[in-house]
Amino acid sequence: MSKNSNETEMTEAEMSAKSKQQVQYGIQMPANKLRESVNASIAAGRMSEQDGEVVMWLYGYAQDKGLGWKGLETKMKREVSSATIYGIFMGNYGAADWSGPLKKIREFQRITIEEEKNLDLGFVETATAKMIFNACDQALNFGMPAFIYGASQLGKTCSLLEYQRRHNHGRTKYIYVGSGWTKARFVREFAVACKCFSKSASTADLEDRIFASLNRYNLVIVDEFHHAIETTSDLEAKKIMEFIREIYDRTNCGLVMCSTKVGLAGLEGGKNRLLFDQLRRRGTVNVVLPDVPRVADINAIARSFKLDLPKGPLLDSIKALLRSRGLGVFIKYLQDAYRTAAKDKEALTWDHFTAVNDLYAALACQKNDY
Predict the structure, then answer these.
(1) Per-residue pLDDT tens digits for 171-222
(2) In what order do the strands lie in the sheet with 285-288?
(3) Among 62, 137, 188, 223, which is most buried by a count of CB atoms within 10 Å?
């Protein structure tokens, strides 16, 4: 088969230099530039809109795995050469018909997604997690904002990260808002999540890159967003919330905002409620999680540790722990119990858990001898 103009051998450095990009890992090309290239190829009739999203997925896969052009070719078992991938990404692949390599990329995507579904990362799909997944699905499928509120230690962040893993490689952008962040810091972290960050880029340039990298097929998750309301100045809080609103309005992406109930109070009853109301009113999905996990969640976790379902006084003690400390502590105690049982070469039982629970309770109630 004759080679087209893009099938000449190019080194990794030459490809990176021609894409004129600074990226810390993976394909040396920013997501916003690839999105522009994909949009141009769609407009020219070289690929469909669905093909464009598959190309964006392939890029996200390479970035997540830290694969360069040649590494991606190897991962695809050389079904598509690095030169062809480069040509498609740059929008100048020389063949008149792009359907052949695009079909192979779609097949690689299908196989990869099926393989990753089978990965057991120890996540327990509780009733709470299912509520969070449903809110994310609504936001992604219908391009609307969703707001999720719940107490600390309910498993909100773990569930959101698992959702991102299942809707992977660039489709879902997850940002954890830190305490005291300015808008500039938020924009930098957002650009990193969108795989379009550059140290040399100004904040305004990063904003443009973010807008260019997102579309209606993306979901943006902003976790712990109450930090942007409660731990920074009023001016920075306004800037951050307005930037989030602008992202949603300009890109038509799905948006999930997740926080403790402090965020609910800040959006609906705080002194900036009228400003924040502009964002809140765009959302039709509003999920307020129960303060204490349901018994169904306790049972799901028990099954994951191969334990009998708790009943009677044991269930009461677990409920008390969940009310006072939360789901995260419950799971940590179970993990400690599992390690103790393994060390003693025993099968995990609720007795091991009770011993751990009693130990930590005793440490919290020590009395002075004097």
Answers:
(1) 899 999 999 999 999 999 999 999 899 899 999 999 999 999 999 999 999 9
(2) 172-176, 219-223, 254-259, 145-149, 285-288
(3) 62
Q: What is the pTM of this model?
A: 0.77
Residue 15 corresponds to which amino acid? M
Q: Which residue has the tokens 């509120």?
A: 149
Task: For residues 118 and 73, give the distance between their C-alpha atoms in angstroms, rounded to a whole number.
Answer: 23
Q: Among residues 267, 241, 274, 235, which one has the least CA distance to residue 255? A: 241
Region of 9 (left: φ > 0; alpha: ψ -120 to 50; beta: rest) is beta
Residues 103 and 238: their CA atoms lie apart, in Å, by: 45
What is the rounded distance in angstroms from the CA atom of residue 26 to the CA atom of residue 29? 9
Q: What does the DSSP 8-state code read for residue 167?
A: S
Quick one: CA dihedral 221, 128, 114, 304, positive or negative?
A: positive
How far is it, in rounded angstroms, from Cα 341 to Cα 337?
Answer: 6
Whole-angstrom distance, CA of residue 84 vs CA of residue 90: 10
The two three-digit tokens of residue 7, written as one number: 């099938």
Would the pLDDT of 319 be above 70?
Answer: yes
- The string over 193-231, giving b where at least 16 C-beta atoms fall within 10 Å of a residue's C-beta and e elsewhere, is bbbbbeeebeeeebbebbbbbbbebbbbbbbbbbbbbbe
DSSP string covering 239-255: HHHHHHHHHHHHH--EE
- For residues 196 and 22, what is the distance between their CA atoms, to the nearest angstrom? 9
Of 109, 5, 20, the C-alpha closest to 58 is: 109
Q: Is the pLDDT of residue 128 over 80?
A: yes
Outline where the chain has alpha helix (H). Answer: 12-19, 31-43, 49-65, 69-75, 82-90, 99-117, 127-142, 156-166, 183-193, 203-213, 227-230, 234-251, 261-269, 273-280, 295-304, 312-324, 327-343, 350-363
- Distance from C-alpha of 191 to C-alpha of 19, rounded to nearest angstrom: 18
| Strand 254-259 relative to strand 219-223, pairing | parallel
State pLDDT tens for residues 55-113: 999 999 998 888 999 999 999 988 999 999 999 999 999 999 999 999 999 999 999 88
CA distance 102 to 110: 12
